[in-house]
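Query form — protein PhnB-like domain-containing protein

QUESTION: What is the three-dimensional structure of this chain?
INPUT:
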Amino acid sequence: MNNHIFPCLWYDGDGKESAKFYCEIFGGKITEDSQMVLNIELFGQKLMLLNGGPQFEKNASVSFMVMCESEDEVQNYWNRLSDGGIVLMELGEYPWSKKYGWVHDQFGVTWQLYLGEKQGEQKIIPTLMFIHQNNGKALEAMEFYTKIFPDSKIGNVLKYGDGVGDENHEIPENVQHAHFEIDGYSLFCMDNSYDHNFDFNEGISMVVMTENQEETDYLWNSLISNGGNESMCGWLKDQFGFSWQIVPKRLIQLMNDSDQEKALKVVQEMMKMKKIVIADLENAYNS
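ANSWER: The structure tokens for PhnB-like domain-containing protein are given below.
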């Protein structure tokens, strides 16, 4: 399974507690455990949990669809995730699924539990909601992302005008639900015209691990094209305000070096950067 693209969830100190919670519910494991970064594996998929501080809160503009194979499986996850959380759509039967529910858990992560066909091997699928100034741009976003990444495609696209479920107040040609892949990694997306009090932010971002500087430059320049913004330490926002982290694998190797003094020099050098420049990291390491 593709584990060089994966979501990053931002926490204010409760990442470890959250990691244990998800590993218990979904039968996963913690694969890296440091004070700031925890990596977990659920159904063979990597998720990164970042104890970054109070700056950003996760919200429902990015939720996680869990493709369930039985009603009992849906019910089991629902019981755990809704405990201490907020129900956004009650668990029940809907036109698109015999058993479905949408819940915001106690750690601020939003889940859609769905009884239906799996999209290949990937069981947990990030779902992007295009709202406010982005409403109506889901199709444009899919075209943007699938042109940038290799091994990409747009799958099924269901529009509100196709008449499945609640299309009240929605523009018929807008996307009710769509599937796309970037470099073999599955995502869903949707347009929504409701005036939510949240939007894309750094609370949930997508990490792409790159092989070299050439790939890093290409993805960085492509994702900030058409009005995106550079941020710090390998972070950027694309034209839709969605956050990405473009991270060379070499950075992780150098930061995890057994020589802590050298590793610290690398971290200090990275803190000065917007886009990550591997040669400058190597220079800091060897200084």
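ADDITIONAL NOTE: The chain has a mean pLDDT of 95.
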